[in-house]
Amino acid sequence: MATAQITKLVPMLYTTDIPATIDFYVKELGFTCDAYEKDWGWATLSFEGVEIMLALPNQHLAFVKPEFTGSFYYQTPDVDLFWEQVRETARIVYPLESFEYGMREFAIYDNNGYVLQFGTPVEN
Fold first, then answer.
1. pLDDT tens digits, 17-59
2. CA 71 remoteness from chain centre
3. 3-state secondary structure 85-122
4. pTM given for the model
5. Where do the CATH 3.10.180.10 domains begin and end in the chain?
6. d(CA 19, CA 21)
7. Rounded distance, CA 10 to CA 85, Å?
8. CATH number of 10-57
9. pLDDT (0 to 100) of residue 109
């Protein structure tokens, strides 16, 4: 019997304003908008192999505002460089810091209120 496989995880973020969300990820973080289908209420963005999708809320689900009980954690080879690019314009959750668990990281909010964390492993 064959074993099922998962080859990729691509988060889909609900938003009521896809153009503004595309703008945030492209201008603030350096993502590329690979596709935007206004009639479908859907877009896909990428950044060096990382992908996310954006969608208008599913009409079959109750939707008041974008919510997620966790965060989206992006690993980067140079978190300090990323911090310098966003620190003046981003809404900061917590600033750049090295933690005893071996990560140097910071967190910001995107334009919808989703928490985005960025980190690089460091030696303790």
1. 999 999 999 999 999 999 999 999 999 999 999 999 999 988 7
2. 8
3. HHCCCCEEEEEEEECCCCEEEEEEECCCCCEEEEEEEC
4. 0.84
5. 10-57, 68-124
6. 5
7. 24
8. 3.10.180.10
9. 96
| Whole-number Å distance between alpha carbons of 51 and 7 | 13
Distance, in Å, from the CA atom of 14 to the CA atom of 98, rounded to the nearest integer, reads: 31
Distance CA 45, CA 32 (A): 5
Which helix or strand (DSSP H or E) is residue 74 part of? strand 72-75
CATH class of 68-124: alpha beta
Question: Which token pair is 26?
Answer: 């492209």
In the block, tokens 């201008």 appear at 27
Residues in the chain: 124
Residue 25: name the closest of 82, 110, 120 by CA: 110
Tell me the pLDDT tens digit for each residue of 71-101.
999 999 999 999 999 999 999 999 999 999 9
Cβ-contact 12, 55 below 8 angstroms:
yes
CA–CA distances in Å: residue 17 to residues 21, 45, 74: 6, 15, 23
Query: Which tokens belong to 118?
Result: 């960025």
